[in-house]
Amino acid sequence: MGAAAHQTVYERFRWAAARWPDRPFLNVLPETATAYAIASGEVTYADASTEIDALAGRYGAMGYGAGHRVGLLLQNRPGFILHFLALNACGASIVPINPDLRSAELSYLIEHSEMVLAVATPERHDDLKAAAPELSVIGSNETLIRCNAVSTASSIGTETECALLYTSGTTGKPKGCILSNFYFLNTGDWYASVGGALAIHEDPPERMLTPLPLFHVNALVFSMMGMMTVGGCLSVLDRFHPRTWWDSVRACDATIIHYLGIMPPLLMKQPNSPGDRDHSVRLGFGAGIDPALHVAAEKRFGFPFVEGWAMTETGAGGVIMTTEEPRHPGTANFGRPRNGVEAKIILENGTEAGTDEPGELLVRRTGVDPRKGFFSGYLKNSEATDEAWKNEWLHTGDIVLRDANGNFRFVDRKKNIVRRSGENISAAEVESILLQRGDIKNLAVAPAPDDVRGEEVMALVISDGARDAAHAEEITHWALDQMAYYKAPGWIAFLESLPVTATEKIQRGEIKTIVADLLARDAAHDTRALKRRT
Length: 534
What we know:
By secondary structure, this protein is of the alpha/beta class. Helices cover 30% and strands 24% of the residues. The protein has helices at residues 9-19, 30-36, 45-61, 78-90, 103-113, 125-131, 181-193, 217-230, 245-251, 263-268, 291-301, 382-388, 427-434, 469-482, 508-520; strands at 24-28, 41-44, 69-73, 93-96, 117-120, 137-138, 161-167, 175-180, 207-210, 233-236, 256-260, 283-287, 305-309, 320-321, 341-346, 359-365, 377-378, 394-402, 408-413, 417-420, 423-426, 440-450, 454-463, 491-494, 525-526. The strands form 6 sheets. It has an 8-stranded mixed sheet, sandwiched between helices. A 4-stranded parallel sheet has the order 4-3-5-6, sandwiched between helices. Strands 15-16-18-19 form a 4-stranded antiparallel sheet, with no helix packed on it. The radius of gyration is 23 Å and the shape is globular. The two termini are 44 Å apart. 48% of the residues are buried.
């Protein structure tokens, strides 16, 4: 079929609805229905199409169209997908809003994206209005407010923006990744044709279960577009529940599950049960599984955990997967470039790395357009876009190596990022918010190892105030009002000074050593218990 067969995501959905009208498109499990106080059950492609078209008509009648952005703060409710497809039909773009964001983060997101409307759950309306008093805010089933902003685009096509996803910046505020219709369509086509260990089929229909958030690219693009392209059914949980996971798998008769690295260890900690293999799952698709658990998890649960690598900036344009045997589970292997993906590893001096030599991963497409299928750029930040695409290679910031067999293996991150429970947290962003406190003179944020979450946020603080546990807890409580709970410090240590360069820049390499030493000496205050999703 090919992405060129359709111009928009909505056209792809309409094609699927015409081909498989009676197949289920979305499935809401009873547990998710209870969490969100919505109806449970399946929604067919035909019924979804009717609802989407009616919603698109209302959006169009109220002036929403190409060039407009609408924020969606609906968590993992099916309404998120229905509103997205309706807005896409009108040519408008969505800005998925992480429900954990708080005051400072919401203000920035709304202002930077220039969204003209936010569709949100009722309990978040006041938060959005406090962050941006001029923003129009409605519920998912409420009467639309007329859009008075002028449409800036005259036509809708494959290069039209259909989503703006924010990623953690390494030098400050999050960057808005512009994603086109082609980005989405290309990902659906990739998933439908990649084959090997990740092969998905039209018949019998696939049924996918994901607990991952719709404000991230995995669920919104890979899961939704993959199922839409092969006429499959998508079940989206409100979040990951380790103790009831296999009940959910059986309840939706899942054939495919999507995972992040934190999920397998939590599942492995559950008591062994006959239910571990009492399911229909053929494969799991994800990234970051603990190499020490990989082989044991596949043996216990009876299907392959297919590891891969991608990022919001790449979409399926630069994805690398372990789709071919041997997959080498347990080695941090994420495959090798295939299907039009070109990759290389470079050292700090710009030369290409040798076998088993760690360096930064660079990716692009082969052929005349190295950016084909990738993001369209960072909103209002052409400098960062140019830097990311230096010499027409996307610089990923991930440190990897290539073994003697040509397989790529993950080593570390070059970027100043904390990877906590699958969330990429910008150390620079957390630092910029914490520095708003008058009692913090300087600080450095860095990852601390965590047995459950992979990494936790640690703040090394220079303060002229108290240096005790009570002050550490006060800082964390304050941070929880300013940023998403997972970004707040889980560890705080008070220091006399930080290692800096001659130009007063923090020496990040030395910070890792300091973190390890502080934890070994029990010289940091543990505030992890204060971090709770609200």
